[in-house]
Protein: Pyridine nucleotide-disulfide oxidoreductase
Organism: Streptococcus pseudoporcinus LQ 940-04
Amino acid sequence: MQEVLVLGAGYAGLKTVRNLQKQAGDFHITLVDRNDYHYEATELHEVAAGSQPKEKISYPIRDVINPKKVTFIQDDVVKVNPEESTVELKNSGTLHYDYVVVSLGFCSETFGISGAKENALQMVDINTAENIHNHILHMMEKYRETKDKNYLRLLICGAGFTGIELAGALVDERKRYAKLAGVAEDQIEIICLEAATRILPMFDDKLAQYGVDLIQKLGVNLMLGSMIKEIKPGEVVYVTSPDENAERHSIDAETIIWTTGVSGSPIMGESGFAERRGRVVVNKDLRDPKYDKVYILGDVSALIDPETNRPFPTTAQIATRMGAHAAKNLARQLNGEKTEDFNYKSLGTVASVGNTHAFGLVGKSKVKGYPASVVKKSIMNKSLVDIGGLKELLAKGRFDLYH
Ligand code: NAD
């Protein structure tokens, strides 16, 4: 019997398993993840702000796999040895594979900025997101004791999609924080520091400006052209000019959240794959260029967009679609057939700003405001159906399209 090993139960890995387990054939699947649950990484900002409990964005992996076809192992992947067709796990020894799907996801990128790891809060998984919410609540209590305004200041580093969506979610929850601190809502300061002078490069000037105006109108202090140089305990140091000797400015804040970008898992480099920032440029059929029994999907892969000649941005949408395609190609390979190329066309990119605002592109059309928010929720619910199934969607009670 042939063995298919899937590493990581995020959007790409779990979708591969969900689709492949439905195929007939003489093969077995082993899925490995460090957690025994799948979580929606695109909703972490809601857990961080406290607008959703972690249970709403996660579900047990065992709920969605077929135990007759799939064995689940909860463990940490240490290294892939593509020359030997083996994978080393932290506690469960070494596994052999005939085919492997590497879908180990992202980690936070600090670009070597001093103090970012130690002195800023990360938002990379359920636990770190929940930690941010608990931290904010604790800071509100500290304000009550000390009346020090730094405890009321929430500072986000980086205004990419993650930073903007987090800022919107924090705005939605500001009232609750203010009540805890015993202050008026507008005393809770939400600041977002961004190096670029123009946010979200994938949108045209007008749409990006709409996003800027929207979050500023909601009361977020978006500081563009502010390049963070260092994070000290409770202090962000930045410059407003690229000049080497530019004057350094700083802002004190007891809540500093790091969202300046992501890279693929460091295991890609440690396993000897040809990677850059943890991402491997894959063939059109999603396999590694050197190892034809290795599929690389999601945030650890870089698939070149033939239109721009640059890698597609890493999103949940592309990861899920890659998972579906890899399952198809694996089924073909297991049957001795040739693989097919993956053709990707994005359905759209929408950033939500709190529960009722959003903006983005669907196809070539711009969507804004409340309708965009409905579109975004539909995309999210679609991903829950795609990977978890309808049962999971209903169990999560996430059908709140009308807010
Ligand atoms: P990102 O790389 O897209 O954005 C990071 C931002 O931080 C950039 O604007 C960058 O200029 C800024 N930055 C970097 N270093 C800085 C510094 N030293 N000082 C100040 N600013 C700095 O990262 P992300 O927002 O985490 O997104 C990661 C990926 O996930 C992207 O591909 C994104 O498209 C995707 N994503 C998509 C959605 C969605 O579709 N709704 C939501 C979240 C993330």
Observations:
- Residues 42, 111, 113, 157-163, 165, 193-196, 199, 227-228, 259-262, 313-315, 349-351 surround nicotinamide-adenine-dinucleotide (CB under 6 Å).
